[in-house]
Amino acid sequence: MSLPKAELHLHIEGTLEPELAFELAARNGVALPYADTDALREAYRFEDLQSFLNLYYELMAVLRTEQDFADLADAYLARAAAQGVRHVEMFFDPQAHLARGVGMGTVVDGLWRALEKSEERHGVSTQLIMCFLRDESAESAMETLEAAGPYLDRIVGIGLDSAEVGHPPVKFREVYEAAAALGLRRVAHAGEEGPPAYITEALDVLGVERIDHGLRCMEDEELVARLVRDRVPLTLCPLSNVRLRTVDTLAEHPLPAMLDAGLLCTVNSDDPAYFGGYAGDNFDAVRATLGLSEDRLRELARNSFVASFLEHDEERRTR
Ligand code: ADE
Ligand code: ZN
């Protein structure tokens, strides 16, 4: 039986399964350079983050209308619910859509069609986190925040994703300050492929409350001590790390060592259509391969609610 859990690291565009990609391509008259779903699945062999991102952005071409975004989100919510997810804090990448001429309203209103029915349909509560693409300019991020102005009542916070190395958190200082002034929560990807210093910078300069991935903190003892002391949640994505070759094999994933160190770890799916599994599949994989005890698995599930932006009394926010 799957444990009730919250999913805190989930890119909605990364839930586009090949079958839905072809359905939307047909609906919108978009030609995909793959013969069929099998040929597309064959392309899911990644060398690193960038090789994945190339396909991730390419396939977004099929997402054109509000209904497309609604169908995408509803399909994810149904799958997540079946794997025990009770709450999701969903990332979306507006710049990738704005650049294709798809407006902020189309994206947010479309996602909202599915999100507003999610509790009733799937028993899953939802929040939206708008991510900035860190390989785009800081000015573009600021313009995106401005474009989101009319929709901020539906957006709980901001995040930072896409190609990490060479795009340090400090690049986005101003837009994070502006978002904080608007009352938005702040998270950022850091320490996925980038160095531990990016994690420190995300905390110190961007004021983030959670670190997405954060895997490479293990290279810096002082940073680990700080993350433990301040109960900073890390949203880990084990199957993603294997597929993007951040770790060589799942058996070598540092999750057990991270838990032993006292880090507030959560387990999430990142881009489940591309990485071979949804939240429950990630839990099953770490249970089977890393031999985590039932207590550890329950701790991970509990951490996911503690680390969420749901209102709750808890001991974490000492910062
Ligand atoms: N965008 C979608 N998935 C991502 C990941 N794992 N890292 C950075 N950016 C992403
Ligand atoms: Zn991610």
From TrEMBL:
Zn(2+) binds at residues 9, 11, 189, 270. The keyword Metal-binding applies. The active site is at residue 192. The keyword DNA-binding does not apply. Belongs to the metallo-dependent hydrolases superfamily. Adenosine and AMP deaminases family. Adenine deaminase type 2 subfamily. Its cofactor is Zn(2+). Transmembrane segments: none annotated. CDD domains: ADA. Binds 1 zinc ion per subunit. Keywords: Hydrolase, Metal-binding, Nucleotide metabolism, Zinc. Catalyzes the hydrolytic deamination of adenine to hypoxanthine. Plays an important role in the purine salvage pathway and in nitrogen catabolism. Residues 4-317 form the Adenosine deaminase domain. Substrate binds at residue 271. This is Adenine deaminase. HAMAP family: Adenine_deaminase (MF_01962). Its EC number is 3.5.4.2. It comes from Streptomyces graminofaciens. It comes from the Bacteria. The record marks 213 as: Important for catalytic activity. It catalyses: adenine + H2O + H(+) = hypoxanthine + NH4(+).
